[in-house]
Amino acid sequence: MAATIAGTLLVYFYGIRLKRVAIDGDSLRISSWRRTVVVGLKEIETLRENRWLSTRPVTIYFREETAFGRRIVFMPPLRMTGVFAPESPIVATLRREAAGERLDLSNSDNSPAKPAGESK
Question: Which of 17, 60, 65, 85 has a Cα at 20 to 30 A from 50?
Answer without folding.
Answer: 65
